[in-house]
Design a protein that fits this description.
The protein is α/β, with parallel strands linked by helices and about 400 residues long. It has helices at about 20-25, 25-35, 40-45, 50-60, 75-85, 90-100, 100-125, 135, 165-170, 205-210, 260-270, 275-285, 295-315, 320-325, 365-385, and strands at about 150-160, 175-185, 190-200, 225, 235. It is built from 15 helices and 5 strands. It is elongated and about 70 Å long. One of its GO terms (molecular function) is nuclease activity.
Length: about 400
């Protein structure tokens, strides 16, 4: 399943544009030309600034994960990998540009992929103890969400599997995909990534796996993530399910009428960080939007490795161009003012019954405490909101 969507990307699928092919008679000249040119050329071709590219080469070499060969230096090896994942290219297209055999291209692609996987754990850092500035500096969220460390959401990425394996990988829309869960910080980094679940896996199955497996999603004591598809349990706060949640579910001139509605609106604003984080990831590495013709294990590694590179770039250059495109904060207008109210307004909280997977590692008392925590946040938020009305 190869992409022919040439209108979406300057370089995509089976062919490199002729102007690029004319730039170099071989891979060495192409890479040297990019790295000796303007920084924008490196960002365009290798999806990161030059100094980050060189630093990543040094890191992989210092750890003994990549080595110069007689024919191909580390810089060219990394360039091959980044050019493929950054432009959704197939091996034969890269052969045209780098003038190497398909076997050589594939070998170095896999070597770099495995090298990045080896450093990935160091690049997925758990949240710290400080209140994120995105919360502390916004009166809509502080102090109510002061213990929130990020948001958790899922994403489907296309996969290519054999005909006999396709059934479990078809998601609810009938598309072949893998189901990935990720925990994101409010500064667009990934804290945790669990890839490889079949597209047909339910949200609760993937969530249950993430919080119970050996390498599980860790939530610091007293902290929590915001979730939407997943249950309201210790460490994870969900919106009120019987109240409209997404902004499109509210008319543009709608005013929150009770605590549940106000809570859901602000919860939705904060949790939208996952959309922006995934947006940056897919814009930088469009291979994730197509089904690359690699073994399934390689396709799973690609999700984790690109998320790790995403974090590496964010750490080394927070104002990277791709991040700036998606970094619009959550201060966009949202009309929370209320129409005139008569008499005393009491916070209204939805009463929900929780149907949880029997495998979830929480008892009824813990689930009830999580529900009480959400109610207390919503009530405090509503009281502050009413108090601030003119």
């Amino acid at each position: 399943m190869e992409s022919s969507d040439d209108d979406e990307s300057e370089v995509c699928g089976n062919h490199v544009p002729k102007e690029l092919s004319r730039l170099a008679s071989n891979g060495v000249k192409f890479v040297d030309g990019v790295l000796n040119g303007e920084n924008e050329q490196c960002l365009k071709n290798f999806r990161m600034d030059k100094h980050i590219f060189y630093k990543l080469c040094d890191t992989l070499q210092a750890k003994g994960l990549l080595h110069h060969t007689n024919r191909i230096k580390i810089e060219e090896q990394l360039a091959i990998f980044l050019f493929i994942v950054g432009h959704n290219l197939r091996t034969r297209a890269v052969q045209e540009l780098f003038r190497y055999s398909g076997e050589t291209i594939s070998r170095h692609f896999n070597n770099v992929l495995n090298a990045i996987m080896s450093i990935s754990l160091d690049l997925f850092q758990p949240p710290g103890s400080d209140v994120p500035s995105e919360i502390s500096e916004d009166p809509r969220f502080y102090p109510y969400f002061k213990d929130c460390v990020g948001a958790v959401d899922g994403i489907y990425t296309p996969v290519m599997v054999g005909v006999d394996e396709q059934g479990p990988f078809r998601n609810k829309n009938g598309l072949l995909s893998q189901h990935t869960l990720a925990a994101c910080s409010f500064d667009l980094r990934f804290h945790y990534v669990l890839a490889g679940w079949e597209g047909s896996a339910t949200d609760s199955q993937v969530f249950n796996s993430a919080i119970t497996r050996r390498n599980k999603l860790q939530v610091p004591e007293g902290k929590y993530y915001l979730v939407n598809k997943y249950p309201n349990v210790p460490g994870f706060i969900a919106p009120y399910s019987t109240t409209p949640y997404h902004s499109k579910e509210f008319p543009s001139d709608y005013h929150p009428q009770n605590a549940s509605e106000l809570f859901n609106q602000r919860h939705s604003l904060l949790r939208s960080v996952t959309d922006r984080t995934f947006g940056v990831l897919k814009a930088r590495f469009p291979i994730l939007m197509y089904a690359p013709p690699y073994p399934l294990q390689t396709q799973v590694k690609l999700v984790v490795a690109t998320c790790a590179l995403h974090n590496y770039i964010r750490r080394e250059k927070p104002d990277d161009w791709f991040f700036k495109m998606y970094e619009q904060d959550i201060s966009y207008p949202m009309d929370e003012s209320l129409p005139r109210l008569e008499g005393e307004v009491q916070p209204k909280l939805d009463v929900e019954t929780h149907t949880l997977s029997v495998d979830l590692a929480f008892d009824a008392k813990e689930v009830e405490l999580a529900s009480q925590l959400r109610d207390s946040i919503a009530t405090e938020m509503w009281n502050g909101f009413i108090h601030d009305l003119p």
